[in-house]
Amino acid sequence: MESISVFLVDDHLVVRQGLRDFLELQDDIEVVGDSGMPVEAVGQIKQLLPDVVIMDLVMPEIDGVEATRRVKAVSPTTQVIVLTSFSDDEKVFPAIKAGAISYLLKDVSPLELARAVRSAKRGEAVLHPEVAAKLMQEFSAPRNNDPDAEALTEREMDVLRLIARGHSNREIADSLIISEKTVKTHVSNILSKLHLADRTQAAIYALRQRLVPMDDPLPGR
Q1: CA–CA dist 202, 187 (Å, integer)
Q2: pLDDT tens digits for range 16-49
Q3: Is 140:208 a contact under the CB 8 Å cutoff?
């Protein structure tokens, strides 16, 4: 079983130790480092290139949004999970825009966090229900400056709709009777054509453009 490498960024030592103690009980997760100073953490992440970073938002020096932006700059393949006590709009939207794949609140159960780490490794988003509801409200109406979905092929539109419904690449492949490798190619093309950073933004785009019913779930639980 391939191990998922995780780096913890939180300015509370007790929180970091609690996360480490639990995650290291998982057979497929390895905590490769932690830091309470985000600037220092970015430097370590650049060297370690972990699969997943679990990031707090309110910290000294720089906040978690800026730290997420810097992590994605030095290690684009590293997925960032925001784990915070705050679900305020002014924190949620900038964090996702900065490149966070998932946004969880600290009331999440340890098992749910472990599942989110595994999902992040696969490139799949997980959003706390409260956060998902905010995103649904914020992005419910199409915007004039959105990229044009007409640039997508019919098959890419099928893939985009399934992304917005929270399906993994494997599930999309099974649904469309194509290979998982082909799905990955379609996802890459979708993100490139629509100038989007990741699957979370793709799902938000699809909902905003009403390409799927608004009562469909965002990627998450």
Answers
A1: 9
A2: 999 999 999 999 999 999 999 999 999 999 999 9
A3: yes
